[in-house]
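Homework-ish question, so no full write-ups if that breaks the rules, but can someone show me the predicted structure for this set?
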Amino acid sequence: MTSLFTKVSPEPTTDAGVRRITVSINGNQHTVDVEPRLLLAHLIRQGLDLTGTHTGCDTTHCGACTVLFDGTPVKSCTMFAVQAEGHEITTVEGLATASELHPIQESFKDEHGLQCGFCTPGMMLTAKALLDENPDPTEDEVRWALSGNLCRCTGYQNIVKSVLAAAARLRSQGATDEEEGETS
Amino acid sequence: MYPPRFKYEAPDTVEQAIELLRQGQGEAKVLAGGQSLVPMMKLRFAAPEMLIDINNIPGLAYHGADPDGTYRIGALCRHVDLEKAEDLAEQQPTMAAAAPLIADPIVRTRGTLVGSVCHADPQGDWASVMSSLGGSIVAQGPNGRRSILVADFVAGPFQNVLRPDELAIEAVVPAPVGTRAGSYLKLERRVGDYATVGVAVSLEFSGNEVARAGIGLTSVGASTINAGEAAQELVGDDLNAGAIERAADLAAQASRPRTDHRGSEAYKRHIVATFVTRILSNLRLTIQEVA
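A: Not a homework solution, just the prediction itself:
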């Protein structure tokens, strides 16, 4: 899937300061023309209509705009879209498949890990990066990893519970996959 | 929020970056982690005409010790690289204590130590850590490299002494003259906040005797403070209670805090003395346990 956006800046310009970049978002290649000052968050939201990525504080504090940049969580309001050229971005839309929620999403649902939901995409992506690296974190490690993501509903207890539940779910899935692999 | 327009360049080599800096004639800024620069541009506190993104330059993400013990941190070494370096606590205890306290975990995936020192925010943690270690910044320009002590590199709030055509290539901590010990303590109102007060203490021991000492103070003055006099009070002694008390007093005197929403001047000065005492007393206990 290739798409080309030329009017992704709110202030379209006729000057030559526009660059063509190719970015992979959730496995889809997008070729877009962007002004260098376009933030990654705005390319994702306004340029590519992936509105699951939220901009909260817009000042690098809250983590609502967190996306995975080559698997590492970054605040997409604090990077320029041009910097994503040639890199793999994962947004919250990349977690679920058409038929199934991601185990992290299932766990946030089961454990009431969201209230208003605004911080949730960032929370889940930060949690994904944590669990990819550390499948069996302690509660303290979860709290530490999430300390760059703010929840203004202050629903932290259930967010931490959700991440721990997701870790258990992913571990048991991994164990089942292994067993199935052995018997087949 | 949108920053003002700028020309974007992403060179592949250090030489190209320096040539672009030369062309920029002081109106170009280097983009490494961008975790301070991008917010400042969005708030329009900074409006460079050109951004030189060095993230595509290979070979700048290193950190580690030379065979002689000199420790080097490349311009693209992220805070998280240091936070996760398992040998750092042994090799650079002050840096190991500071790394997990920089901003928040997501900022640490992008931000860099060298960028933080260059940014020269009086509230930045790395400049005082590097200052306590007697560290330097290596700047490369069209005519080669020069090394600048961090204590001289930071010229004031948000000011460094880099020339317009110089790129900060790496931070360097000189080889120790003895066994390293040290720590960093930071008082913050919440995770990710700037320091209300930060104190870096770096010592090198020859036996029980302090052979070299450095104390750097964060957020208690118009720029990073090197409390050299306080540190000197510890050298040549065995870290006894009297020396610790004198160093804590002198460090508090060297601080120049201002009353603001994070606390009063007297409170911050008190915290400086408390942190110096706490770090040194803990080190003293560790040494006594080892002996």
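Now go work out the reasoning yourself. Hint: Residues 156-183 of chain A form the longest helix (28 residues).
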